[in-house]
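sorry for the late reply, my laptop died twice this morning and i had to redo everyting from scratch. anyway the thing you sent over, i finally got around to it. pasting the sequence first so we're on the same page, its 157 residues, then the predicted structure underneath. double check i copied it right bc i was rushing
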Amino acid sequence: MARRNRKLIEQVNEISEQAAEQVNETVETAEQVNETFETVEQAVEDLPDFLSICKSRVGLEDALAACKTKSSAIRMLSARGWSTSVIAKKLGIRYQHAYNVLSQPLKSAPAEVEVAESEPEPEVASPVLIEAPELEVGELTSDEMQVMVETIDSEEA
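ok and here's the structure:
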């Protein structure tokens, strides 16, 4: 009977070891699945940034080349809808730099374009309103109208 008990104990131990190996394999598989899930989750989170990058790539290199400073490039990309983290990655700068630029107002207003002074506009005479007698159409001849216009002109002068 002792021999039989030992054999049973050995079988139980062997089954326990096999079960432990299967549990370890299951845990490893679960960890791999969890890592894959986290990778997919991160990709889904980055998708809006990726789409905004794709949409705003048109003319991007020319626009970046036109920017004189990193700050102006950061502001331009932000105006195009890029997130702070994507801006930092694109420009090869720290996130904190991009964040600081976007959170601070401009220190100076953009340079104004100088406009050459032109000659002042001539003054335009304002119309003079006069009281005219109520007339029916056809009461004045063209000569009488001419006299009336000359009278108005002489009064203005």
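The longest helix spans residues 2-55.
thats about all i looked at so far, will dig more tmrw
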